[in-house]
Design goal:
Chain B has about 325 residues and is mostly helical. Chain B is built from 14 helices and no strands. Chain B starts with a helix and ends with a helix. In chain C, helix 14 runs antiparallel to helix 15. The chains are: A alpha/beta (about 350), B mainly alpha (about 325), C mainly alpha (about 375). Chains in contact: A-B, A-C, B-C. The interface between A and C is small, with 9 and 7 residues.
Chain lengths: ~350, ~325, ~375
């Protein structure tokens, strides 16, 4: 097995939308790669372009006003600009996708069983009965109670957590090499959330799938991811292995992000630090570093657009000198802790 | 499930009761002239008026009048016309029903197929010239009064181009019973079918297109696309199937409304002796008992159609099924 | 497109589930945002364009809708000029029969009703169209009357009836819908049941039933006497048959508004019911009603022509487009213009109203702003 060859390589992916007020960029120059069986966490605030990145990769942006450029190579095959038929051979078959809101992700007029069977039979020449049996097995595998009867239920007859499990079962139905999960737990209760995450973590072990997990919840990433991508205003601002990135984040935005979580150990801060200001409007993007206007360390260099750089394995898009950056971070963090 | 069915049945009975009351009030309690004069028709003699007053219990209180009317319509069925003396009204209406049903059924086939094609094609090709052309045609279709379209059709097929090879097969206006001559029945009705269906093809095409476009923005469509099942399947099995709910509702209501009098204009223009034509004839001669009978019978048809829609709804939308 | 206005509209849509944001709503949205801790820059909101203005701008940019409106204005103007046309161009009385009239065309004297040359040579065929801007431009009907002049007079009645009936229908429907939805309880139950029954009653049969009893005799209600030929009868009949069709959605809309958070918020801060009704409910209901205006006008026009065609609408010698088509039915094969011309007029009017209706709906519905740029 080619475990070292990258499963997915995304290069300079850009998504923009034509509006009556001009072209608005939603994703700018996103590049990353993913190895087999790797779990990549993508974090960022709402509107940072995480979901648009994923949707663009699979050609799922349906707006006639969207413009997608760049390159997305999956197992060596370029996905952008692929004919619909060829794209459909990849989607659902080799790449499964889980969506944010399980309440609206399933067609209300078909049973979940039929929706899973439809996907299986679209990609494999199996009988209806065989597909149905597999659907039941899948529902069982994702922990849906009494899968034999659940298979004939309509989406509205299941709870949110159950529906999300059904969506996951559907995404897994063809043993995809890559599973893309777009905020799979956001719409769910905390307890259900944990179960779903555990399930996604287990998938890699049992099905051998790589996973891209998009979320704005850092706790989720800390739980399951191997590597983390931090996005801000449509760009990747930091990328690195989870342990390293959580231990020594490089980008001031990431500092703010981690500063907004209460620490488990050490002195309790009097108040959590919030990042001042709000993310820029996509239609009014500032010149240079998009985080500049909110950044405490903004300086002359920041009028230019920083590129993702630094040591392999842990890179960030920031002009601050790498040496001594961690000291700056500690000073910033210390301010939040009462003397 | 059964309880829901029974309760809907009860509601249906209530609405029918309500309609019969409204009809009764319109005919017997409208301010102005004496109802007996209305019922007896023009230039009725004193004896006739007296007989009407007695037969309809017009000298008795309202509830009695109502009960008497309903009895004569549904139980004894001996309501008679005063224009065509002795003509029993209820059997005449029942005889006309197959004509109306033939007309409306055939038109319904055309408009369902036409509406589906227009709606799906326009919805799928949204924003293109094909979509725009279909929508302009649909809009024109819904803007043409059906009786006028019928006259134009007659002008073309019966007069101006009747001798050309295009329309020489069109039989003279009128109805041919299916049991007498199925092919003749078909030929006699095909122009009326198209005429009646035109409005509805436009209407259903527009509604279905809007509904499909709205549905295609839904999250579950994105899920379906992510499954890699091909756009046609996404459109038909997920988009169209979910949009059908509105379509079926409309169909039931329109079908009922047409059987219940909406097809009147088409019947008149094409000389088809259906319930509508009967009503029209009665209008010309002010034959009130006949109108009374057609109105009540036809309304009940409509209510029944609504009831069937509700049942069909349960079959096509699992969400409604569980709401019961 | 002003993005701010659009996003404002969408935000308020999410919060109020109302179709269009109104200044009154925006106030509550600001309150809601503060309560939920969402920072909203108030300044940009003030700079935003009001929803009415947005709608108006969108409608003006809709070329089809503007054309349709211009066509309607033209037709209305032409109809208003009917007496002028009859006096100065057609030089006839459009309502008097003219069986033995004669007219000089190209130096030849011709009978307005000529002896029929077709078939057995029995009966008369009215004069065909001269296509000259003068007497009998569109020919004569079987009473020898000028079709073109009657067409204009008929247009007056058709438009008048459609307009007046629309006023009655929308006024009544709004009143019933708002009362029913806003006050709820017994009033609502009662009104809803009545509307249900009327709704189930086939429109045509309802109109026919009303017509047959009303139009045949004059009616005296107290001091007001409505004569049988009065235009008020078709106006009244057409005005009420569509009430349930408008009242039911308005009631539903009011109900959903009552559940909306900005109304809950208004109740929460102690606003009186009347204040909520006037500031929050009515402005939102009005947009719905406006969307109905062109559609109801189109429906009314169709209904009027149908009833008149069945001779239970406008009564002779008065004319409407429907009655002229009825007059032309007997002449269909010999002088088709008599039936074709008024029908075409109806098609053009109704088509224009439908196009205008689409435009108004698109302009007032923020959701419809998704389109290819």
């Amino acid at each position: 097995m080619l475990t070292d060859a990258p499963l997915l390589v995304v290069e300079n992916l850009c998504v923009s939308f034509r509006t009556e007020g001009g072209v608005v960029p939603a994703v700018s120059g996103v590049s990353f790669s993913l190895k087999q069986r790797e779990i990549l966490g993508v974090v960022g605030e709402s509107g940072s372009g995480k979901s648009q990145t994923l949707l663009a990769m699979l050609g799922l942006i349906s707006s006639p006003n969207a413009v997608v450029t760049g390159s997305v190579r999956f197992l060596g095959q370029e996905l952008l600009g692929l004919k619909r038929r060829a794209l459909d051979a990849v989607r659902g078959r080799q790449i499964g996708m889980i969506f944010q809101d399980p309440m609206t992700a399933l067609t209300p007029v078909h049973t979940i069983g039929n929706q899973i069977i439809e996907q299986i039979r679209a990609h494999e020449r199996v009988s209806r009965a065989a597909a149905r049996k597999r659907a039941v097995d899948l529902l069982d595998a994702v922990g849906l109670p009494s899968p034999g009867s659940a298979v004939d239920r309509y989406p509205h007859q299941l709870s949110g957590g159950m529906r999300q499990r059904a969506v996951i079962a559907m995404a897994l139905s063809c043993n995809p090499a890559l599973l893309i999960a777009d905020e799979p737990t956001t719409a769910l209760d905390v307890t259900v959330q944990a179960q779903i995450l555990e399930l996604i973590g287990r998938l890699r072990d049992e099905f051998g799938s790589a996973v891209i997990l998009v979320t704005h919840d850092l706790g989720v990433v800390a739980d399951v991811a191997d590597r983390v991508l931090v996005m801000y205003a449509g760009r990747v601002v930091e990328e690195g292995a989870k342990g390293q990135l959580f231990r020594e984040p490089l980008h001031p935005y990431a500092w703010g992000l981690f500063g907004s979580i209460p620490p488990m150990h050490g002195p309790r801060p009097s108040r959590l630090t919030a990042i001042p200001g709000s993310p820029p409007k996509l239609s009014q993007m500032p010149q240079g570093c998009a985080f500049g206007p909110r950044c405490v360390f903004r300086h002359e260099a920041c009028v230019a657009q920083p590129s993702l750089g630094g040591a392999t394995g842990h890179r960030s898009a920031c002009f601050l000198p790498e040496v001594g950056r961690q000291d700056l971070r500690r000073t910033l963090a210390a301010k939040a802790v009462p003397a | 499930m059964l309880a829901a069915f029974v309760s809907r049945l009860g509601q249906m009975a209530l609405v029918m009761f309500g309609i019969s009351i409204v009809a009764f009030l319109i005919f017997f309690a409208t301010p102005g002239a004496d109802p007996s004069a209305r019922i007896a028709g023009r230039n009725a003699s004193q004896e006739t008026l007296a007989q009407v007053r007695h037969d309809f219990g017009l000298d008795q209180p309202m509830p009695v009048q109502y009960a008497l009317m309903m009895k004569r319509l549904f139980v004894s069925r001996d309501l008679t016309s005063f224009v065509n003396r002795g003509q029993k009204v209820v059997p005449t209406v029942l005889q006309a029903i197959p004509v109306t049903l033939s007309l409306v059924f055939g038109a319904a086939v055309f408009w369902v197929i036409g509406g589906l094609i227009v709606g799906v094609v326009a919805g799928a090709t949204r924003g293109t010239w094909l979509d725009r052309t279909l929508m302009i045609l649909s809009l024109i279709g819904v803007s043409i009064p059906v009786f006028w379209l019928g006259e134009v059709a007659n002008l073309v097929t019966q007069s101006r181009w009747h001798d050309s090879f295009l329309f020489s097969w069109v039989p003279p206006l009128g109805y041919i019973a299916f049991t007498d001559d199925p092919w003749g029945w078909f030929k006699a009705l095909i122009i009326p079918w198209f005429t009646l269906a035109t409005l509805y093809i436009g209407l259903y095409g527009r509604v279905l297109r809007a509904s499909i476009i709205e549905t295609m923005q839904e999250d579950f469509i994105r899920t379906a696309r992510a499954k890699g099942i091909g756009e046609r399947r996404v459109l038909l099995r997920h988009g169209l199937r979910t949009s059908l709910v509105a379509f079926v509702t409309m169909f039931g209501l329109d079908f009922g409304a047409l059987v219940g009098g909406g097809a009147l204009l088409t019947e008149v223009v094409f000389g088809l002796q259906g319930v509508g034509k009967l009503t029209y004839g009665a209008l010309q001669t002010l034959d009130l008992p006949m109108i009374l009978a057609t109105v009540i019978y036809a309304s009940f048809f409509v209510v029944m159609a609504n009831f069937i829609v509700d049942v069909a709804f349960v079959l096509i939308d699992p969400r409604v099924r569980d709401a019961h | 497109m002003n993005n701010q206005a659009q996003s404002d509209a969408r935000r308020s849509d999410a919060i109020s589930s109302a179709a269009v944001a109104f200044p009154a709503d925006l106030k509550f949205i600001a309150i809601m945002d503060k309560l939920s801790g969402v920072q909203t820059p108030v300044r940009s909101r003030r700079g935003a364009e009001g929803p009415w203005r947005t709608a108006w701008r969108k409608l003006r940019a809709d070329r089809a809708a503007i054309t349709a409106f211009a066509v309607l204005v033209l037709i209305a103007a032409a109809s208003l000029a009917a007496p002028l046309y009859a006096r100065h161009v057609a030089r006839t009385d459009a309502f008097a029969t003219n069986l033995n009239g004669e007219i000089i065309i190209d130096g030849q004297t011709r009978q307005v009703l000529e002896a029929s040359t077709e078939g057995l040579g029995l009966g008369f065929t009215p004069l065909g169209p001269t296509w000259d801007f003068g007497p009998y431009m569109l020919g004569a009907d079987n009473q020898g009357r000028d079709v073109a002049a009657r067409l204009l007079y008929g247009g007056r009645n058709s438009l008048l009836i459609a307009g007046a009936a629309a006023l009655i229908c929308l006024g009544l429907a709004t009143l019933l819908g708002v009362i029913s939805g806003f006050f709820g309880g017994l009033v609502d139950t009662l009104l809803s049941r009545i509307l249900d029954v009327l709704w189930a009653f086939p429109i045509f049969l309802l109109a026919i039933s009303l017509s047959i009893v009303l139009i045949t005799q004059s009616i005296a209600i107290g001091p007001i006497e409505i004569r049988s030929g009065s235009l008020w009868l078709p106006i009244f009949i057409i005005g009420i048959v569509y009430v349930p069709y408008v009242a039911r959605p308005i009631r539903g809309h009011v109900l959903s508004l009552m559940q909306a958070e900005f109304v809950t918020a208004a109740i929460g801060i102690g606003a009186s019911p009347w204040r909520i009704l006037i500031h929050d409910i009515l402005p939102n209901v009005i947009t719905r009603v406006i969307v109905f205006v062109p559609l109801i006008l189109a429906l009314n026009m169709m209904t009027e022509s149908s009833l008149s065609f069945l001779s239970i609408g406008v009564q002779p010698p008065d004319a409407s487009w429907g009655t002229i088509i009825q007059d032309g039915q007997g002449l269909l094969y010999s002088r088709p213009i008599v039936a074709l011309a008024p029908g075409l007029a109806i098609v053009i009017c109704v088509l224009a109203l439908n196009i205008l209706g689409d435009g108004v709906r698109d302009a007032l519905d923020p959701k419809s702003s998704i389109r290819v740029v």
